[in-house]
Amino acid sequence: MKPLILFFVFLLTVFQSAGQDGFNYDESKVPQFKLTDPLVFPGGRKVRSVKSWERRRKPQIFNLFEDQMFGKIPAGLKITHFRVLEESTETPYKNAKRKQVEMILEKEGKELRILMLIYLPVNVPSAPVFLGYNFHGNHSVTTDVEVKISESWCNNNPSLGIINNQLTEQSRGVESGRWPIQMILDAGYGVATIFYGDVDPDRDDFTDGVHPFAYRENQSRPLPNEWGSIAAWAWGLSQAMNYLEKDPGVDPSRVILIGHSRLGKTALWAGAIDSRFAMIISNDSGCGGAALSRRKFGETVKRINTSFPHWYCTNFKAYNDNEENLPFDQHELIALLAPRPVYIASAQEDLWADPRGEYLSGFYATPVYHLFGKNGLESPVPPSVNQPVMNQIGYHIRTGKHDITEYDWTQYIQFADRHLLKK
Ligand code: GCU
Fold first, then answer.
1. Å from CA of 147 to ligand 1 middle
2. Residue 396 confidence (pLDDT) above 50
3. What whole-number percentage of the chain has pLDDT above 70?
């Protein structure tokens, strides 16, 4: 390539990974802020026991997140039936069994169909499983020709074979680099994945996906404190768990949630609403996920509510340019997961997601882990790149950009081995 072209490619890479103009990427410009304390009640009394955390303080914090950020998930809405569409050991992987399960929600003549793809290691009788959404259809995570193509709406991306908002054969395998399935199986884990658009298409439209199944008469969008899309995706993960609990090939006490980016935000909230998940992994989840909002580093609350008005509930918009008045910050989302193992990962070039703010959430959630006698992130200073910490709260910042890579998965498997296999 000519030097000039190379220079432009370089500039493009810098802009893409570092984030967008008009946002702060300068640590010295991070405002002074005071965080809410998860272990202090609003009146000033301290939480001193697991019992008072579990019974009183944790529900207070949970209710605030639900009411002010993610929105309430309608009670009682459930997948009505699960259908195993096919299962086979003929897959591109060694020692593997594939299952494709349809999760159907039927209500008043309407139907929502969600497809789950599962690979299990045949040599493990009841396997721990990583469960997470994919961005571009189940068939995008693998070259396996038997994997069905979802018909749900997807953002156009002709280079990935997504045309007229439909996934196509051309998108088969395009995300396989993010899903090292053979490596996961070889480590003795299964993997289950769902296209997130099956549950709710990722656009500001509340007439599609699961939301309409819970509307009262004449309702056409959620109320200000009712579920946005992230909460809907979190609901879908709980529904998947309802299936996994009954699959004899799966160990329901060791289902691990994993998600990248917006799907990492989803994994965190899904872990908070459903204690059946044994471990939670947030990969580069950033703003509205693991990153502290009050730092206003990279993406901000206003920016996320503007670009993605459907992700959080309407009440969350009150905190645009008003992070100081949030009744919580994201360290308390991590605290809601205690004492379960949680892994927060960042990437060095992913400044948009505020790596330091992601680390600090784990650090400030640590006192709640201490209450349970567990170590979290003990140092206020993040570790160097590619130096994972694997206490009950795990963390790494790897070299490279916003993505989920084999390096990330290698750490997650090791973290899961350490915290779940010792049982
Ligand atoms: C955008 C968005 C982030 C999000 C990311 C993703 O960059 O601003 O909040 O995490 O998309 O999901 O890939």
1. 27
2. yes
3. 95
Distance, CA of 133 to CA of 205 (rounded, Å): 20
- Selecting among 136, 139, 260, 402, the annotated active-site residue is 402
pLDDT in tens, 96-128: 999 999 999 999 999 999 999 999 999 999 999
Dump pLDDT digits (tens) for 290-316.
999 999 999 999 999 999 999 999 999
| 144 in Cβ contact with 187 (< 8 Å) | no
Contact 179, 142 (CB under 8 A): yes
Angle made by CA atoms 277, 279, 283, in degrees to the nearest 5: 115
Rounded Cα distance, 286 and 260, in Å: 10
**Nearest to 179, CA basis, from 422, 416, 413, 421:** 413
Listed residue (239, 172, 236) closest to 198, CA to CA: 236
CA 107 distance to own-chain centroid? 28
Residue among 50, 47, 62 nearest 372 (CA): 50
pLDDT bin (cut points 50, 70, 90) of residue 17 is very low
Predicted confidence (pLDDT) at residue 246 exceeds the cutoff of 80: yes
Q: Ligand 1: residues whose CB is within 6 Å?
A: 261-262, 286-287, 299, 304, 307, 352
> How far does CA 355 lie from the centroid of its chain?
16
User: What's the CA angle centered on 404, arms 399 and 408, to 5 degrees?
Assistant: 65
- What tokens does 95 get? 């020692």
Ligand 1 pocket test, candidate residues 261, 285, 299, most atoms within 8 A of CB: 261
Q: Is 220 a catalytic residue?
A: no
Site of tokens 């289902």: 255
Write down the catalytic residue from 150, 261, 282, 361: 261
Please, what is the Cα angle at 397 between 348 and 37, to 5 degrees? 110
User: Hey, which bits of 246-378 come out as E strands?
Assistant: 250-260, 279-283, 342-347
Q: Is 402 a catalytic residue?
A: yes
